[in-house]
Design brief:
An 8-stranded parallel β-barrel has the order 1-2-3-4-5-7-10-11, surrounded by 4 helices. It has a 3-stranded mixed β-sheet with strand order 6-8-9, with helices on one face. Helix 8 runs antiparallel to helix 9 and helix 15 (403-421) packs parallel to helix 16 (464-475). It has one domain (10-217, 227-239, 304-310, 352-475): TIM Barrel (Alpha-Beta Barrel). It is of the alpha/beta class and 485 residues long. It has helices spanning 30-33, 46-51, 69-83, 94-97, 107-122, 138-142, 150-166, 179-189, 199-223, 246-269, 274-280, 286-289, 294-298, 363-375, 403-421, 464-475, and strands at residues 23-27, 87-91, 126-132, 172-177, 229-234, 239-241, 304-308, 313-316, 345-347, 381-385, 426-432, 451-454, 459-462. The chain is globular. Keywords: Carbohydrate metabolism, Cellulose degradation, Glycosidase, Hydrolase, Polysaccharide degradation.
Length: 485
């Protein structure tokens, strides 16, 4: 199987081209695209429960049908092949495979992922499997969820099941996608499933997600061949103080602690930062939470770190007319997701916004990647999500023209190219997303896909950006400015 590992050193890129073997892909998540919510033994996840709870998701939308990828995966893989994708990053629905989160697997659930990976391999596309993209089996949440330590053992057992089922087909494994969202949006602000607003539970969940990652890496390594790669994907916040004032620098430090270093500290350095512990000591007893052996488990070596980036995070101390503590780009809530960070004001980096009201700033991605390369030399990186939502529509001619998305992708791919030239070992890029899909609490109101989905008919229409991206893949290079696919 072709591993996601291009040639090194990273500096092989020329003025416009990317390194030989650079991996070009697209990504999706199970609950956002699969549908078939109650088919073949699948039981509710926390997102099924959350989306069916009135008032939690815009327009009462759910992922019951989503993009119907469960039934249309062959057509979707054919689309991927037409676009020239080299890899497809998908997630596994835990409750489709293991309905109660414990015990034996449901073979009908595993069979879907076997069929999907076989289809990908036949099309020459490398499957990249993510074990967890936010859809905890509801029965495990009922038993305590991520704040409960037992969930880490359940996740390790699930990882073992998946490795034994797909280890002969999948050579690239990601344990968790964006554990910050799972912990801080799920248990802090409550804007994501399971919708809890408990600061102490948020921090316990963060530690147990870290621990679950480590245990899963151990379970995967015990089963997979030595050539297989393991990873985790983090939505690292590119945090900037609004001004040079010391109080704004202090706000940035606190956000960096609970937004980034609560994960990178134990994962990459083997310890939780002292300032994070001090900031949050009034909420949780870290000496009791972190047991002997936890940090060694969490810091098991990984082969690549996945990095998701959309927009920078600009912060300051609150002051009259200087932002609000809730305007942080993560949805409206009376409860801050920034557990332990105190009062912090959030600001837009500029006025060039996507449909999510996120500022477009490609330099933030360059800074993030080169910063990781500097702080952790030799760390292999993969941009596992990057993209933008815009108000796409089908023209009378049946086309979807999205020049804003093309401009967004061009600027961010240029940022990746510059990061590689500056020494960052970036080995690939996954566009978010392959398809328009269920955008969590925003329902179907936001379109991130390179492929337009008409939800009433499930018709797929590749957007202009999809054809542009296909041209980039074909040439392994950005087209000259003004040049179109």
């Amino acid at each position: 199987m072709t591993a996601v590992r291009p040639e090194t050193p990273a500096q092989q890129a020329t003025a416009t081209s990317f390194p030989t073997g650079f991996v070009w892909g697209a990504a999706t998540a199970a609950y956002q695209v699969e549908g078939a919510a109650a088919e073949d033994g699948r039981t509710p996840s926390i997102w099924d429960t959350f989306s069916h709870t009135p008032g939690k998701v815009l327009n009462g939308d759910t992922g019951d049908i989503a993009a119907d990828h469960y039934h249309r995966y062959r057509d979707d893989v054919a689309l991927m092949k037409d676009l020239g994708l080299k890899a497809y990053r998908f997630s596994v629905s835990w409750s489709r495979v293991q309905p109660t989160g414990r015990g034996p697997a449901v073979e009908r659930g595993l069979d879907f992922y076997r069929r999907l990976t076989d289809e990908l391999l036949e099309a020459g596309i490398t499957p990249v499997a993510t074990l967890y993209h936010w859809d905890l089996p509801q029965e495990l949440e009922d038993a305590g969820g991520w704040p409960h330590r037992d969930t880490t053992d359940r996740f390790a057992e699930y990882a073992d099941i998946m490795a034994r089922a797909l280890g002969d087909r999948v050579g690239v494994w990601t344990t968790l996608n964006e554990p910050w969202c799972s912990a801080f949006l799920g248990y802090g602000s409550g804007v994501h499933a399971p919708g809890r607003t408990d600061p102490a539970a948020t921090l316990r969940a963060a530690h147990h997600l870290n621990l679950a990652h480590g245990k899963a890496v151990g379970a995967l390594r015990a089963v997979l061949p030595s050539t297989a790669q393991t990873s985790i994907t983090l939505n690292l916040h590119q945090v900037r103080p609004l001004t040079d004032a010391p109080e704004d620098a202090e706000a940035a430090r606190r956000i960096d602690a609970v937004g980034n270093r609560i994960f990178t500290g134990p994962l990459l350095d083997g310890s939780y930062p002292a300032d994070l512990i001090a900031d949050t000591a009034h909420l949780v007893d870290w000496n009791d939470l972190v047991k002997d052996g936890d940090l060694a488990e969490i810091s098991r070596p990984i082969d690549v770190l996945g990095v998701n980036y959309y927009s920078p995070t600009v912060v300051s101390q609150p002051a009259e007319g200087r932002g609000t503590t809730r305007n942080d780009g993560h949805g409206a809530s009376d409860h801050s997701p920034w557990t332990g960070a105190g009062d912090v004001a959030f600001h837009l980096a500029n006025d060039d916004l996507t449909a999510m009201n996120w500022a477009i700033d490609a330099d933030g991605l360059h800074t993030l990647l080169t910063g990781l390369a500097k702080s952790h030399p030799g760390l292999a990186l993969m941009v596992t999500e990057n993209g933008a939502a815009f108000d796409d529509y089908v023209s009378p001619e049946g086309r979807v023209n999205d020049p804003q998305r093309i401009a967004y992708l061009r600027s961010h791919l240029d940022a990746v190219h510059r990061a590689v030239a500056d020494g960052a070992d970036v080995r690939g890029y996954f566009l978010w997303s392959l398809l328009d899909n269920f955008e969590w609490s925003y329902g179907y109101s936001k379109r991130f896909g390179a492929v337009y989905v008409d939800y009433s008919t499930q018709r797929r229409i590749p957007k202009a950006s999809a054809h542009w991206y296909a041209d980039v893949i074909r040439h392994n290079a950005l087209p000259a400015t003004g040049e179109h696919a």
